[in-house]
Amino acid sequence: MTVPQPTQEDLNERAAIDRSARYPVMFFFTSAAAWLLFATLMGLLSSVKLRVPGLWDDCPFMGYGRLFPVHTNALVYGWAMQAGIGVMLWLMARLTRSRIQSPAALIVAGHLWNAAVVLAVVAIWFGAGRSLPLLDFPGWMWPLFAASYAITVLWVIPMFLGRRNALFYISELYLIGAAVWFPWIFITANLLINKGSAPVMGAGANAWYLSNLIYFWMAPVALAVAYYIIPKISGRPIYSYPLAQASFWLLAVLAGWTGLSRYMGGPFPAWMSAVSGAAAIFILLAILATVVNLLMTLRGCTKLWEYSPSLRFTVLGMLMLAVYALLSALGSTFVFGKNLQFTHFTAGLDLLAFYGFFSMTMFGAFYFIVPRITASEWPSGAKIRTHFWFNTYGVATIVVITLVGGIAQGGDLANWNPERAFSVSTTNSGAYIVGRSVAWALITWSNLVFLSQLGLMFLGKGRKSSGPTLIHAEPGEVSSARAAAGIH
Amino acid sequence: MNSTNFWKLLGALGLSFGAPWLFLVVLPYLGQSDAKTVPYGEGEEVEGGLAVYPDPTLQRHGASDYGRDIYAAEGCAYCHTQVVRPTYAGSDMWHSGWGGREEAGLARETQPADYATEGVALLGYQRIGQDLSNIGHRVSSREEMHRHLFDPKSFDYESAMPAFKHLYRPAAVGTGFVPTPRAEALVDYLFSLKKDQPLPKAYLSGN
Hints:
The complex is a heterodimer of chains A (488) and B (207). With 488 residues, chain A is mostly helical. Chain A contains 16 helices and no strands. Chain A has helices at residues 8-51, 64-96, 103-125, 142-161, 170-195, 199-234, 241-254, 270-297, 304-307, 309-331, 334-340, 344-374, 381-414, 424-428, 430-458, 478-484. Chain A is globular and about 75 Å long. Chain B is mainly α. Chain B has one domain (59-204): Cytochrome c-like domain (Cytochrome Bc1 Complex, Chain D, domain 2). A two-stranded antiparallel ribbon of chain B has the order 1-2. A two-stranded antiparallel ribbon of chain B has the order 3-4. In chain B, a hairpin with a 6-residue loop joins strand 3 (168-170) and strand 4 (177-179). In chain B, helix 4 packs across helix 5. At the A-B interface, helix 1, helix 2, helix 5, helix 6 and helix 7 of A face helix 1 and helix 2 of B.
């Protein structure tokens, strides 16, 4: 089965949609990338502080307990969510063939969101944090995030309703899911925690929020991207549409039950962490079905992976999603979980979600979307290569090191010999922290390269060319290279 | 997609998510919200003559609400948990002092009501440092607690804990440092962390 060639009319329409999306989407993308650079620097600084606790300890802003939440909040709300919102807007416009109306209002929403992130980061840094992972900001701040997110939803849903396209894509299903689920999770968690009448369930709501943010927002947005980019670049329809739909609904039914296994053995009714653990295991089925479906779509045209940066990042992101689902399922069982709980493993798993699968897929989307909406090409293929490899090695190193370090630390924590100082567990995992710092340095460099390229595109200084920028451009292979960039 | 189908889709998305939202989060939250103190029954003698569990006076000392805010703001919970898991789920109970006063036979795993007077329990994220559920029993004096915060390496050179020097200021006379009110509040809070109060029989039987 071949995909029909677009007519000139189609191409004009796409160009018009891209033009309407340019300013709001580029606003979200560029500010996201700036936050990403900040967040990786904070990641570097916080892991250095973890190994050398005495560094700058006169300064209240340099404690690990403040730097780490500054890092995670900037990474998730500054980078990941803004990147995801930008992708959501563009993808929905393209899939439903509708232009983005009044883009200025979206830019206002973007400013509001950025203001909220700045306030949250400053508040945590100046000592108003709440030590609640990813809900660290002071209690009055959540309506700012909710309001600016609501504006973007008010743009996404009408596009979906006013669709001019007879086809209904699986990506749209994921985007609508992400659009409506996130506010629900976010508002619930914040209201319950601010209510403050059930302390232990407040912490439970926090754990539930963390897991649902990953499975109910990050995974749907990333999968919407993958279900769009992989068929687009390979020029093939999705391997199995019914499987794609089935795995969507499986995820929808199961994801809400996950999260409480973070505190298994904690002061909760035992059924809660048991149900969450079971859900995490069943969800593995949905994720593996999805990833296999996507990879089968690519079967026989893996050469495209060498050329197309979008495809490379997206496929890598999907593989990391599968690894994440597998490890979180393992960690939800008593056998593994009881020794991995509260170790670097937990932190590494969260990072694998936020940075590994989600950010990688978003990079794939950026490399696809930005040239289209700015009508220019990425300045340098070599720099895309640098971004890819430094990022890949950096993330792989962090994830492997934190997971292995977590296993080692878990073993030390399980050792209750009273003759042994507690600090043996931190000393033994010290080498892993050094590795983590080195990896953050690699990632910081790669993101600096990425931001510089994106900044040029933002300023309209991209390469003016009819051919796309590819990771490897080889003479004589222009036709396959064009295919690699998704132009059919 | 016409709008009828859209509402159907929205309904399906809502139902799939609504079930866990209601049964895993909202109802358990509301159920825990009206938890009451449980009195000790006949013949249950408790040290100090306590009448109810959780002891409302035990967990709050003076400015310890403020101390809890300092604990949260400094991100203590990113390295210290306040969870003691039962033995089938981890080795916490074997760590000396984590579960409470072992010599008095009071060590136990943490219960939901132990956190009753906090708005949100700071259960923690990682264990870079020790569990603090019962730190109030493990440190002998305020001075020692201050020294833990001001110079953790004086207890264990390998400690990964940063020194919270900004909570202290140079003494007006002589050498040395004096705690700020924030350090005092934090120490108040840490001394209020005692989660080994004996459980009344009525609590255990759920009545």
